[in-house]
Specification:
This protein has 182 residues and is an alpha+beta fold. It folds into 2 domains: 68 residues, no CATH class; 94 residues, Roll (PH-domain like), CATH 2.30.29. It contains 3 helices and 8 strands; from the N terminus they run E-H-H-E-E-E-E-E-E-H-E. Strands 1-2-3-4 form a 4-stranded antiparallel β-sheet, with no helix packed on it. A 4-stranded mixed β-sheet has the order 7-6-5-8, with helices on one face. It comes from Elliptochloris antarctica.
Amino acid sequence: DTDVIRRYIISGSRRFSNYWWGTILSFGGFGFLLTGFSSYLGRDVLPLIQSKNILFFPQGLVMSFYGVLALLLGVYVWFTLLWSVGGGFNEFNREAGSVRIFRWGFPGKNRRIDISYPMSDVEGIKVEWKEGVNPRRTLYMRIRGDREIPLTRVGDPTTLEQIEGQAAELAKFLHVSLEMPS
């Protein structure tokens, strides 16, 4: 095996579902806000929004509230995508004898999460899965001192075969044990 460095990219928040929800929340919130505003004015601001049968109090006011709420949530989702929160990589470097976990966080003093461990501290790779309505399949790296560092992103929809394959490949590369649930 001539491979000395393995790097696994973690996409974080940049996945299709977040782009979908950012778009839905933004357009939906804008539509609700315009409908509420139109009911306040008593005339349609845009021709495609019919608000003649909507009284401002209480329906227009509630629609405006929901519109503002959806727009704020949409802005939050778009900023999360822009900042690539949760994105980063896991790097395993045999040459340097180090393991590096890097993730992007929210802006502030903890924007860059960069953790390094000596490869000698890695005791094993652990796979954990829970089936059901909300299945969870997570890959952990066990570090000396009974610490477990998650290597997969939260909510990552991976198949059981994919996570087992990645775990076996990584355990073999690091020359450590592989723990599978029974």
